[in-house]
Amino acid sequence: MRLSALQLKPLSYADIPGWQDDDQSLAVGALKRSAHCLQAVLTAEHRAGAGLAVDTATPTPGRANTTVEAAADAFLTELKSLPEGLETAAARAYFEAHFTPFAHGANELGFLTGYYEPVLDGARRRGGAYQIPVYRLPDDLVKISDDRLRGHLDGALTAARKTEAGPVPYYTRREIEEGALAGRGLELLYLADAVDAFFLHVQGSGLIRLADEAGRVVRIGYAGKNGHPYTSIGELLIERGEIAAEDMTLEALRAWLEADALRGRQLMQENRSYIFFEEQAYRAGEGPLGAAGVPLEAGRSLAVDAGLIDLGLPVFVVSERLRHHGQTGFRRLMVAQDVGSAIKGRQRGDIFWGTGDEAGRLAGETMHEGRFIILVPNPVVDSLSGPNE
Questions:
Q1: What span, in angstroms and rounded, lies between the C-alpha atoms of 54 and 44?
Q2: Are 340 and 301 in contact (CB under 8 A)?
Q3: pLDDT digits (tens, 9 = 90+) for 190-214
Q4: Quick one: how far is CA 373 from the chain centroid?
Q5: What 3-state class would DSSP assign to 59?
Q6: Closest C-alpha to 225, from 278, 183, 180, 297
Q7: Range of 223's domain?
Q8: The pLDDT of residue 63
Q9: For the stretch 209-237, what's the b/e string if a residue is b when 16 or more beta carbons lie within 10 angstroms of its beta carbon?
Q10: CA neighbor of 78 nearest in space, from 26, 42, 53, 50
Q11: Cα–Cα distance between 362 and 249 in angstroms, integer?
């Protein structure tokens, strides 16, 4: 756990606005599915690698007759044994007994956005309206860094192209759209609309209704990227005075792109980053896979900067002005289960809103200030060599 780097300060649960009003039972399933990530967080090797001194030979402070590793094992065993359908009060009591909440020392406001899984029409074979290829991962792409850290490392190349002369930067979005990968059999499927294809890349997953397979639905998800830094074209339009910041939504951006196809294509190509996809298992009612390798849960899964906040950790998100989802402010326990190229910094989060048009509306309108309170497993807190200032 990267507590030192985050400059966190401990809180009490009474200090968390909205903690008593949330239904924490709705986050238990996401937490259990992320147990393998928490297992990594709880290992001495992980904590030592994060620069935190750990003593595994002496009793854990505040816990009677147990070592750090024994406490970690007991923590995971209890987590995995939590029953289905846990009541709200029992779920809240579980979190309060097993996690310590921490806020950022400076207590500065962060920024929240949203993402979703679009549902699009497509085809396995090119023909008719379906001319825009979606590519699978090329075999000459070499990953330079852990894909889960792509947001944290964005600004530097995270992948390269293997050549006889050595690695070189991979093809950019413009080069790929102009045919750099054509003829290599990498086409996974085809879409009808270039703007739909671009937003699919931004969201990282999608459900595709295959016109040439009697409308069969398949799920495609993130397999890798070309390694180039992500550029927000929405921010470019705001900087250039094309759309006012207060008017920027996903629909406003789409309207601008579609108003002039050539102009829209040129702007989209300013984002040099390009995503490759793979087909994933599709089960109705289940979300796409996030970076933690488990299905995302609408309204409870959060994308974070995994270079600063470990995947699997519960995060209580507070945003007083985020009200478009039908409540008075957003105060909700979520689980860090995903990452994104644009999600970088200790106070940056991306809410997964679900699948389909309504989720897309919520995602497109989520651009709000927020605060993030991280819940750290007590065995990690107990193992720290000193106070976290």
A1: 7
A2: no
A3: 999 999 999 999 999 999 999 988 8
A4: 17
A5: coil
A6: 278
A7: 119-280
A8: 46
A9: ebbbeeeeebbbbbbbbbbbbbbbbbeeb
A10: 42
A11: 10
